[in-house]
Amino acid sequence: MIATDDIKTLREATGAGIMDCKKALQESSGDIDKATICLREKGYLKVQSKASRETKEGLVDSYIHQGGRLGVLIEVNCETDFVAKNEDFKQFVHDVSMHIAAADPAYIDSDVIPEEVIEAVPEEEREQFIKDSCLLDQQYIKDEAVTIGQLLTDLISKTGENIKISRFVRFKLGQGA
User: Fold this and answer.
1) Could you give the domains of the chain?
2) From the centroid of its chain, how far is CA 28?
3) Residue 115's pLDDT is what?
4) What is the rounded CA–CA span in Å between residue 128 and residue 161?
5) Burial bucket for residue 174 (CB in 10 Å: 0-12, 13-18, 19+)
């Protein structure tokens, strides 16, 4: 039997539905960490099914750091203005802009890295290069147990909408184009 407190804890941590949390806990013999992984994997499948949906709403956010010496602008899109106004969505967008300020990614994901850049990196270093340069592959600065991509997947599962990080730019004083 799964304790109601465990279901509540898992629900608060993941944002998944009560029945999904209960089922994940049953499948993982009550282990909250394993249940979280199970929900993430199921969330990934949901994300794949939503990937083709258009994202025309969203939010542009800014983060300014170091007394105005470093700033980030980011655009994150979703399907509806209802989600765009949701506090979880707003917090995600702001947290990702803060992450960009700290981690300085060059690309959103590996699909947009120019082929000549990939080819210039020695093959044995490519995986680490991608983890360091691609936002979605970077470990989240507030919780290194998850990547930005996993946070995005969790949010998509929670909102039920397709969400995309469309673009970002990081400005650092003295580092012009």
Assistant:
1) 4-50 (1.10.8.10), 57-172 (3.30.479.20)
2) 24
3) 87
4) 30
5) exposed
Q: Which residues pair with 172 in a beta bridge?
A: 70
Q: How far apart are CA 19 and CA 111, in angstroms?
A: 35
User: Got the DSSP string for the chain?
Assistant: ---HHHHHHHHHHH---HHHHHHHHHHTTT-HHHHHHHHHHHHHHHHHHHTTS---EEEEEEEEEGGGTEEEEEEEEES-HHHHT-HHHHHHHHHHHHHHHHH--SBSSGGGS-HHHHHHS-GGGHHHHHHHHBGGGSEETTEEEEEHHHHHHHHHHHH-S--EEEEEEEEETT---
Q: Dihedrals φ, ψ of 70, to 5°?
A: -145, 135
Amino acid at 43: G
28-77 confidence digits (pLDDT tens) = 888 888 888 887 777 654 555 556 667 789 999 999 997 899 999 999 99
